[in-house]
Design goal:
mainly alpha, single chain
């Protein structure tokens, strides 16, 4: 118990908020509430990054995950128009199996952390988490994976544009089918 009391108070508060909001994401019945709780989870994770002196990762996390991806999730949920009638009936066995698996992972992690004796990462040395150091590592050691991920993102954008374009022939066929059915 002395290890927990030696942790900084902001870290403990943020960890509590992160865990509660992540649990609400999984247990919420309403998908919109689940997405909003996921945004809160991403905000608290960004605050953890700031505590670790990784300001760049905090801002990128907010912009990419809390900004772009959560907006995308909300739009998809609004377009799907989910209702109780369209929801498939699920077995309780999945929940029981997930609870057992999560409990086993929790026990394993707890045992691993107790064995190592490390509760929190030690205080970062000077310069860790700064953009200058991140850029140096990305452009030297990880240049090839960095460029490959850029190519992957470009191909994903081209694929999204091609999927989003409508074919005139398919629209004409839909119009002909609608006229024949009427």
């Amino acid at each position: 118990m002395s290890e927990i009391s030696s942790l900084p108070l902001p870290f403990l508060i943020l960890s509590f908020i992160t865990i509660l909001s992540a649990l609400y994401v999984v247990t919420s019945k309403n998908p919109v509430h689940s997405v909003l709780a996921l945004i809160l989870t991403f905000f608290s994770i960004s605050a953890h990054y700031i505590l670790l002196n990784a300001q760049f990762l905090a801002i990128v996390n907010l912009m990419v995950y809390a900004g772009a991806i959560m907006v995308l999730f909300l739009f998809v949920l609004m377009l799907l128009n989910l209702s109780k009638e369209s929801e498939p009936i699920k077995s309780n066995l999945w929940g029981i199996a997930a609870s057992i698996a999560a409990g086993m992972v929790l026990i394993t992690l707890t045992a691993a952390f107790q064995k190592s004796g490390i509760a929190v990462m030690p205080a970062p040395s000077e310069g860790i988490g700064l953009v200058k150091n991140l850029g140096r590592v990305l452009m030297t050691e990880y240049l090839v994976p960095f460029e490959l991920s850029g190519i992957l993102f470009i191909s994903a954008m081209v694929g999204a544009v091609l999927l989003g374009k409508r074919d005139k022939n398919s629209e004409e066929l839909v119009d002909l089918n609608n006229k024949n059915n009427a």
